[in-house]
Amino acid sequence: MAEGTDFGGAVPQHIGIIMDGNGRWAKKRGLPRTAGHTAGAQNFRTITRYAASIGMKYLTLYAFSTENWSRPAAEVSALMRLFRQYMEEALTDFMDENIRVRFIGDTSAFAPKLRELIAEVEESSAPKTGMVLNLAMNYGGRAELTRAMRQIGEKIRRGEMRPEDVTEDVISAHLYTAGQPDPDLVIRPSGEERISNFLLWQSAYTEFVYFDILWPDFKSSDLDEAIRIFNHRNRRYGGV
Ligand code: IPE
Ligand code: IPE
Ligand code: MG
Is the CB of 62 under 6 A from ligand 2? Predict the structure, then answer.
């Protein structure tokens, strides 16, 4: 962190980032889309380290959505290869960083080798006490809510719960992010201004910052800027 970085206030507890724009970054350079994913994956490391260094408590990064399977098979397999490579590196990489890595999304859809790596990364980083990094992989807000509804329905069917016991807190407790604070801020680079199925329930009162920057070009200083913008917002939560 640049010494004395001015955030215009405190660093928010929980920030989400929709890592978008890899394909366009590559296209601009006359490269295949997968080159954009490689550059984006490198940036994922830089930004994660930086976020931990400024004292963020939770960082949630959207890496692959439930809808991203609809991309050409070659792009999907290139992404899977990258994920595997990054999981392997993460095992050594984040070791000395005090970062706890968690996966949110349906990781059962991934190939056995990737699933093994995911389990290993989660397990080996579990004792870490610093920032929690949530990696959203095969994640969709609707799929997450559907899964929660099924789990709750199952508990009702077994007689462990009554319909009137289903509160907002109960629903939150059945999401992948159970026990974590809702994101204060979600940042979307790339120029798109939409949520694309990210943290639908959790973002009820989240502040959004959109940047016309492609993810591989997104710098630590852009994160600082997003935090400053956030700190100038007036969060009212429906009040006055
Ligand atoms: C984000 O970049 C990476 C994933 C969704 C996996 P994109 O691949 O969506 O890049 P653009 O939006 O096409 O530029
Ligand atoms: C959102 O980006 C998902 C991730 C960044 C992982 P997309 O590129 O898939 O979203 P759309 O299609 O522009 O909404
Ligand atoms: Mg995109």
Answer: yes
Find, among 75, 2, 52, 35, the residue nearest to 214 by Cα.
Answer: 35
Q: How far is CA 136 from CA 123, 139, 154, 159, in A?
A: 17, 5, 25, 32
Domain that holds residue 85: 14-142+183-230
Catalytic status, residue 20:
yes
Q: Is the dihedral of CA 69, 70, 73, 76 positive or negative?
A: negative
| Helix, coil or strand: residue 225 | helix
Q: What is the domain-level CATH number for residue 213?
A: 3.40.1180.10
Residue 170 domain flag: no
Distance between Cα 3 and ligand 1 center (Å): 33
What tens digit of pLDDT does each residue of 63-79 get?
Answer: 999 999 999 999 999 99
User: Does residue 96 have an active-site annotation?
Assistant: no
* SS3 state of residue 188: strand
Give me ligand 2 centre to Cα 92, in Å. Answer: 29
Q: Which atom of ligand 2 is nearest to the CA of 196?
A: 14
Alpha-carbon span 42 to 40, nearest angstrom: 5
Closest by alpha carbon to 185, among 225, 141, 140, 155? 225
Chain segment 126-172, per-residue pLDDT in tens: 999 999 999 999 999 999 999 999 999 999 999 999 999 999 999 99
91 is written with which tokens?
């095992």
Ligand 1 center to 135 CA (angstroms): 16
Q: 6 with 228: CB under 8 angstroms?
A: yes
Which atom of ligand 2 has the smallest separation from the CA of 136?
A: 6
